[in-house]
Design a protein that fits this description.
161 residues; alpha/beta; 8-stranded mixed β-sheet; two-stranded antiparallel ribbon; 10 strands; globular
Length: 161
Amino acid sequence: MAVIGIVAVSQDLAIGKGGRLPWHYSSDLQFFKRTTLHNAVVMGSNTWRGIGKPLPQRLNIVLSRTAQIDDRPGVLLFRNTEEIMTLSEYLNCDLFIIGGEKTYQSFKGLINRWIVTRVPITVDDADTFMPEDFLDGFELLITEEGDEGLTIKTYGRTSES
């Protein structure tokens, strides 16, 4: 079981605006679906509200210290990363950390691979960003050219980190 951060970032490291993705690239959404299908996805309550429904054919895990969510099949609410990591020991799939900013930060030391889609724009008035150092301790493993000008890069944790 791997803990994988998956994120799309603009040139200025934006990942969100008003609780939503600040762009729409169908090829990125298709890649995200293909990559996370039949796995567990972990998201914060803001990301959960932005998506608005469980992602099909995935175990949806919402991480929030305070939020309440409606009881739905395939959706679990946890209050801390330790509870999620305990659950992950019993899962027969990978754990994808899908956002937002606080959730990525919560899993910073636990993520052993990043899949980063580089979006070829800057975002005016973005309100959610990845930190500049989020890939410190990781090395580039694979670069793929995607459709619509997107570049997908996979990073693995270095042995020193």
